[in-house]
Amino acid sequence: MNLTPREFQNMMTGRNEQYLDELQTYSIFALMMRAVYHSNPKKSMKPKDLFDRSKMVTDEQKKKSIENRAKQAEEDMQFLQNLNFG
User: Are 39 and 45 spatial neighbours (Cβ–Cβ below 8 Å)?
Assistant: First the structure.
């Protein structure tokens, strides 16, 4: 299998990202195990206590948030331009 230097670099970058994703998954798993281990034994834990998919921020929500921030910054700049200190 002959790879060009660019193909090899892309393959190694992809493998590194895959490894980092795996480590992130393990760290989340460890945090969940710790939460269960240290939880109140009288209260039964539900999977939703550890992970709630509905609370995950989607790309669309991030985009709306960025648009709202940009609009707010524009309004603030307009307000500052209209200030008169004299």
Answer: yes
Categorize the per-residue pLDDT at 62 as very low, low, confident or very high, splitting at 50, 70 and 90.
confident
Dump pLDDT digits (tens) for 21-60: 899 889 888 988 888 888 887 878 777 777 776 776 676 7
SS3 of 2, please?
Answer: coil
Q: Give me the residue spans of the domains in the chain.
A: 5-82
- Cβ atoms of 32 and 50 closer than 8 Å: yes
DSSP state of 52: -
As given in the structure block, the two tokens for residue 79 are 């307000």
Q: Does pTM surpass 0.70?
A: no
3-state DSSP call for residue 7?
helix
